[in-house]
Prior knowledge:
This protein is an alpha+beta fold. The protein is built from six helices and eight strands. The strands form three sheets. A four-stranded antiparallel beta sheet has the order 6-5-8-7. The chain has a two-stranded antiparallel ribbon with strand order 1-4. The chain has a two-stranded antiparallel ribbon with strand order 2-3.
Amino acid sequence: MTSQFSTYVITQPCVGVKDATCLEVCPVDCIHSTDDDDQYFIDPEMCIACEQCALVCPVEAIFLDIDVPEKWQNFIDRNADFYRRTKGEPMPVPIDRAITMIQAGHAKARELDIAVSVAVVDEGGRLIAFGRMDQARPMSVDIAVNKAYTAATFQVPTAQLTATASQSWFQSMIVSSQGKVIAVAGGLPVLDSPNIVGAVGVSGGTDDQDVECCRAAVAAYGA
Ligand code: SF4
Ligand code: SF4
C-alpha cells in the first residue's frame, strides 16, 4: 500500500508521556500503540497530513516527515516499523468480487428506479472496476470514482466528511488531490477485518439513494 501524501511522525518527546491527546483529533484513526510500547505511532500509509495531531500535542512530539529534527530521524522508521510489525498485508478487492459489487449496486439502483455509476477502488484509491448503467449521467462517472477514492483515502464513509469540508486543511486536501477528494455522501470503505481493502463510490441518485446502492455493493463483497 502506498501513501498518497507526506506523513506526520511521532518522535522522542512522546516517549513516556503517551497521553493519547492526538488520538482524539485524527480524522482517519491512524495513531496507535500497544501496552508494550512506550509511545504512540502514526501509520505512514494512512496519514493524510492534516496536521491536527501536531497542533494539540502538549510536548511537540509530532513533525511532518521532512521536518523531523536530525536527532530524531530514526523515529521515521520507528513509526513505520510499528505498523509492519502489527498489521497484516491487506489484499485489495479481487476483480471478480468488484464486478459482483458493481452488479449489486446496479440492482439496488434499478429497485430505486434510478441509473448510477459504481466505482470500486483498492485501499489506495486506485480503480479496480467501474460500471455505468445505461442512462446514468456522464458526470456520475467522475463523481463515483472520486467518492470511492475519498472513502479509501480517509477510511470513512464520505458522508462523515461533510462536517469537515469547510475546514482549511480539508480544502488544502481538495486542492492537492486535484479535486479527487470530495465530501459528498455515496462513498464507503470496504472492510475485510481488520483491514480496509478498498472502497466503493456511487453517483447518479440523491445522496440517500447513492448510499443505499453503496451499501448493497459493500454487502455483496462479503456475500
Ligand atoms: S496528520 Fe492528521 S491524519 Fe496524520 S496522524 Fe495527524 S491527525 Fe492523523
Ligand atoms: S499528543 Fe503527543 S505526547 Fe500525547 S500521545 Fe500524541 S504524540 Fe504522544
